[in-house]
Amino acid sequence: MGIKIPTLPLTSGTEIPAIGYGVYMMTSAEVEKHLPEALELGYTHIDTANAYFNEVAVGRAIKDAGVPREDLFVTTKLFPQSYPYEKCKADIDATLERLDTDYVDLLLFHQPYGDYVSGWKAMEEAVREGKVRAIGLSNFPIHKIDEILAVAEIKPAVLQVEINPYSNQHELKAALAERGLFDVVFEGWYPLGHGDANLMTEPIFTELAQKYGKGTAQIILRWSYQEGNVTFPKTLNPAHMADNIDIFDFELTEDEMARINALPQHPYYQVPEEPPAFVLATNDYSKQA
Ligand SMILES: NC(=O)c1ccc[n+]([C@@H]2O[C@H](COP(=O)([O-])OP(=O)(O)OC[C@H]3O[C@@H](n4cnc5c(N)ncnc54)[C@H](OP(=O)(O)O)[C@@H]3O)[C@@H](O)[C@H]2O)c1
Fold it and tell me: What superfamily in CATH does domain 7-265 come from?
């Protein structure tokens, strides 16, 4: 095992590793090839979803790697078709079966549509039944987070949203703080702008990369870590995989953080109020390689 990745506390009482391995848009074959490489390097946190259609491969790769389950942090996500209470209960069980595990460390509602209010009760029951250690939301705007908070006995421990230097989510963080929710952990997807060359070649990152002897991706990931975020950069390249967790031996100054936070804000993806077509599509997650 390689680098020891720091963890952040969750309100559930568990700890989440600050960097994970994201497997979005990875085929089952890619997961089985690259996830073991990540585990070997020291990654212990894996971010998948029902909608990635690779949970069976994630489960298989974990078993094959022989890493004890309790040493790993596995996140997955349900899509809106699974939210209605009864369906949610059944689909949580089906998810655990696909991942070949007794529990997941974090279960998220992936998209802010459908019957997420009735589903939240099923999520809470899954926590009480030991099937899920922590629950949270992804891509939910503040007014929909408020709908969950109005019924929640267990508040979301995590919010997973787009976070990168062009989308620092300071407004959403302030809105949660106004509601007294200072301890919700933010997770950033598209931490490297999905590989956007414009982001990676911003002059400030080139300058800081030179100063610290790091790559621009490492500067961006370090910024996100110092912002208090968890991230899971995706890469199929073992050298990048190693670089992306090698960010814990330097620290950006307050002034450098402020300069990065002064970059213009323009998220890559705006979450629409109504469900887009890809969310409405019918999916049969049992059909996986
Ligand atoms: N909740 C949601 O709705 C949602 C949405 C999107 C994503 N996610 C999660 O977030 C994860 C990450 O998002 P993402 O994969 O779209 O975008 P990303 O991690 O921001 O970017 C991935 C791109 O960055 C490149 N890259 C990675 N490390 C690098 C390095 N050290 N140096 C240079 N280039 C590097 C990769 O290319 P190489 O392969 O060449 O390294 C790839 O092209 C996903 O896997 C998923 O788990 C969640």
Answer: NADP-dependent oxidoreductase domain (3.20.20.100)
Q: pTM (2 decimals)?
A: 0.97
Residue 2: pLDDT above 80?
no
- How many angstroms separate the alpha carbon of residue 151 from the centre of ligand 1? 34
CA-proximal residue: ligand 1, atom 39 (nearest)? 235
Pocket test for ligand 1, best of 234, 246, 270 (most atoms within 8 A of CB): 234
What distance in Å separates the CA atoms of residue 237 and residue 234, rounded to the nearest whole number? Answer: 9
The yes-or-no answer on residue 52 being catalytic is yes
Q: Which residues face 58 on adjacent strands?
A: none
32: tokens are: 């089985």
Type of residue at 43: Y
Cα–Cα dist 226/122, whole Å: 34
Q: Record the tokens describing residue 137, joined without a space.
A: 């939301």
pLDDT in tens, 177-219: 999 999 999 999 999 999 999 999 999 999 999 999 999 999 9
| Tokens (6 digits) for 122 | 């099923």
Report the C-alpha gap between 74 and 35 in whole angstroms: 12
Instruction: Give buried/exposed letters for 239-276 (b at 16+ CB in 10 A, else e).
Output: ebbbbbbbbeeeebeeebeeebeebeeebeeebeeeee
Q: What is the pLDDT of residue 3?
A: 82
Residue 25, sorted as left (phi over 0), alpha (psi -120 to 50) or beta, turns out to be left
Domain borders along the chain are 7-265
% of the chain with per-residue pLDDT over 70: 99
* Residue 135, φ and ψ in degrees, nearest 5: -125, 150
